Write a sequence for this structure.
């Protein structure tokens, strides 16, 4: 398994502002994903973070709202831009060494937008 | 498309009771199946997995069998403990998916165990 950390662990933000969430892994991984878990709901994939290329977004999610960086094989950031209360969620990153291997999750970032 | 249907919660049990959480799936290819657990205030942890039909995943007294004929992966535990109180998510990964490695999750089942 991999050891994954996320920063910040939680934050309270004002609407209209942006927050960047960091995901750090203790080993090199090919696959990194960003998920959203809205209150009382299941996990929804936002995008796949690809090293050296643009992220691949799922239907309903766009780069202008959720820009993602993946500068190397151990680190990624997700920015939640121009936030509204509807963005209040837990944001989780997950990693896998390859697409065939088990995915492991970070502890999550709990975001509340006022 | 791929999807996971999971038993609605919440589930409330007394300690030492038998637990079953139902999970069925739809997949276009040959999925791997997973159970993840989320303890209060924490992220998701992999509980167990099975990668092909008839495989049984097991961990911490929990087990689930990959049943291709019924497209199911039900989670069971013979005797639950208070410390098992958490949200349980069934998930699948489909090697035929257009998004490689993507996990499809069920809605989650909240389990509360009383002493």
């Amino acid at each position: 398994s991999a050891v994954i950390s996320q920063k910040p662990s939680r934050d309270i933000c004002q609407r209209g502002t942006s927050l960047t969430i960091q995901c750090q892994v203790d080993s090199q991984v090919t696959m990194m994903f960003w998920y959203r878990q809205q209150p009382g709901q299941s996990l929804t994939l936002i995008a796949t973070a690809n090293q050296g290329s643009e992220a691949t977004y799922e239907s309903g999610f766009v780069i202008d709202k959720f820009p993602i960086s993946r500068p190397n094989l151990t680190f990624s950031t997700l920015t939640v831009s121009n936030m509204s209360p509807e963005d209040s969620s837990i944001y989780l990153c997950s990693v896998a060494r390859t697409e065939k291997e088990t995915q492991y999750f970070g502890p999550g970032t709990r975001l509340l937008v006022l | 498309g791929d999807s996971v249907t999971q038993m609605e919660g919440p589930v409330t049990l007394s300690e030492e009771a038998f637990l079953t959480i139902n999970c069925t799936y739809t997949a276009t290819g040959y999925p791997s199946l997973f159970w993840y657990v989320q303890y209060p205030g924490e992220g998701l942890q992999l509980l167990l997995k099975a990668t092909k039909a008839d495989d049984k995943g097991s961990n911490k007294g929990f087990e689930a069998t990959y049943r291709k004929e019924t497209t199911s992966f039900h989670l069971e535990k013979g005797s639950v403990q208070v410390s098992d109180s958490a949200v349980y998510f069934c998930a699948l990964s489909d090697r035929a998916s257009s998004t490689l490695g993507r996990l499809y999750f069920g809605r989650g089942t909240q389990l509360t165990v009383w002493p």
Chain A touches chain B through 23 residues (CB under 8 Å). The mean pLDDT of chain A is 92. The CA atoms of residues 45 and 68 of chain A lie 13 Å apart.
